[in-house]
Every structure is written in structure tokens, then in C-alpha cells.
Design brief:
Length: about 90
């Protein structure tokens, strides 16, 4: 996980913790507080899920680029080998 991802996850966790504490200490009915806390946690889970999906897409893209590069290098090496064998 990159440093930016770690910072974002930490920030989201801090925001969720702050929101949860704020809700727990607010002078509202317990049921209202639990509903708000539940919604906050659902929002946090959605945010984490979205970030994870983005990171998976980034890793998939990187894998594809590396694979293409390796295939290109192999083709070039094969062509050079065939040329060397033909001229030997």
C-alpha cells in the first residue's frame, strides 16, 4: 500500500472515530444516536470499499503494463537471437 493510501485510510479512520465520539456525546435520544452512528459506519465502509476498488484497478493496470513490457523485451530478444543464428 502506498504512503498516500495509508494516509487516506488513517484520515478516514480518524474521521469515523471523531464522528462516532461526537454522536455518542451528543444530547440526543439513544436510538437517534445509534442510527446516525450506523449510517456513519456504512458511509465509511463504502468509502473504504471504493478506495480498495481504485487500488485494485491501479494494481491491475500496473500488472498489465509490466506484462506488456516483458512480452516486448522477450520478442526483441527472440528476434535478436534468430538474427544471430541466421548470421552465424
Amino acid at each position: 500500500m502506498s504512503d498516500n493510501s495509508k494516509v487516506l485510510v488513517g484520515l478516514l479512520a480518524g474521521l469515523a472515530a471523531g464522528a462516532a465520539l461526537g454522536l455518542l456525546l451528543a444530547p440526543e435520544k439513544g436510538s437517534d444516536t445509534r442510527d446516525k452512528l450506523s449510517q456513519s459506519l456504512k458511509d465509511l465502509a463504502d468509502s473504504i470499499r471504493d478506495k480498495a476498488a481504485d487500488e485494485i484497478n491501479n494494481l491491475t493496470s500496473l500488472k498489465d503494463k509490466v506484462l506488456d513490457s516483458v512480452k516486448t523485451k522477450l520478442r526483441q530478444s527472440e528476434e535478436e537471437f534468430v538474427d544471430d543464428v541466421e548470421h552465424a
